[in-house]
Amino acid sequence: MSAAAGGGERTSPARVVHGPPVPVGKERNQSGPSRAGEVVLWAEDVRVDYMGDAPTHAVRGVSFTLRRGEILGVAGESGCGKSTLAYAVTRLLRPPARLVGGTVRYWDTPRGEFVDIMRMTPEQLRRWRWEKVSMVFQSAMNALNPVTSLRRQFGDVLRAHIDGISSDEVEARGRRLLEMVGIDPARIASFPHELSGGMRQRVGIAMALALRPEVVVLDEPTTALDVVVQREILNEVRRLQAELGFSVIFITHDLSLLLEICDRLVVMYGGEVAELGPAARIAGGAAHPYTRGLLRSTPTLFGDRKELAGIPGSPPDLRKPVKGCAFAPRCPHAFDLCLQERPVLAPPVAAGAQEAAMAPELADRAPIGTGAGTAAGTAVGPGPDGRPGTRAEWEAACHLRGAVTGPVAAPAAGAQGGGP
Asked: Does pTM top 0.85 for this prediction?
């Protein structure tokens, strides 16, 4: 993978970031199963624009943490910024995409500190990719070189990172990797066009795991595959993740798939996070109207029959400033206030329980058309039924009353419970 990064990225020496103190009993450089739950990747206020006459603000202030050994899903409709976010956190952006704000930090276990990857030099970045963080790209056929054999492509990956590795070792490791993902090792002599779509995707996963990284980013790994092959790929990912213990960022537009495989889920809309929380909680009671709309549009094979309903309207034009809630023009619960106040990501409900949703700031502000404060009973403008509504009703419409106020805590280096 090339170490080149998108325009405007910084290449000064990697900066070490000291996180808050680790809880007693947690060594900063300890290894093994007891480290499960630690933050390994920390993205904060990431912003990406596609430059042009009218720049497109594709990712707008996204923050999240990835814990060691977890599967974090990123869902949303086409154009919401999912893949752009993945390329940003791995510094794979190419012009016209440009990182215009935010930081991404990686927990460097040997050093016992967070390292700012946005400040890595090209050589540091080349080593970091694939050894620490790897990626399975959206289209396996396009990601694999069509004119070289799998043997040659495994060799390129291994020789780029392991000095002096012999041809025999490359062959042996390539065969083991193919066998690990359920492909006959003899296929190492094959070319990509000789493989089925599912086999090519498995090869992509095998190459991503060639150097045993701590984080694997899967960008739409089941796109264009039939449902049977999708199931096989999902089972393979879960088996390998349980066996090798790496963390996963799983990106797809298929929310039902993520609810099945993920520990936590990020729902994106209009370039920002609409909802973030445990997958089980979102499946049982999503907080944001957009998430609930996605769930209502998904058929189920079990339980009571339900009427499917789509989400009317179109996503916002991110070339233009988005005022208020980006989802308000499509939201069945929108009040006038939604078109004025931009929601923010609420803090976790409780320490150690990562639950957040897009929630309005509860600080006093002037409501639309008046000079009064915005207490629970204050009018905030017409609601969806046309009558005047209160802030309390506005919050209740989005299931936001249980959110805890206060700042979102930055992750500590050990077992963090705070942070998005």
From this structure: no
Give backbone dihedrals phi and psi of 104, rounded to 5 degrees, phi first: -130, 125
Q: How many residues does the chain have?
A: 420
**Predicted pLDDT of residue 316:** 93
pLDDT tens for each residue of 208-252: 999 999 999 999 888 777 888 888 888 899 999 999 999 999 999
Q: Hey, which residues does 115 pair with through a beta bridge? A: 16, 106
Per-residue model confidence as pLDDT tens digits over 78-120: 999 999 999 999 999 999 999 999 999 999 888 888 999 999 9
Place of tokens 């970091």: 128
CA–CA gap between residue 121 and residue 127 (Å, rounded) = 10
pLDDT more than 70, % of the chain? 72
Task: Give the integer Cα–Cα distance in Å for 136 and 265.
Answer: 19
Burial 41-57 (b: 16+ CB within 10 A, else e): bbbbebbbbbeeeeebb
Whole-number average pLDDT of the chain: 77
Q: Which residue type occupies 246?
A: F
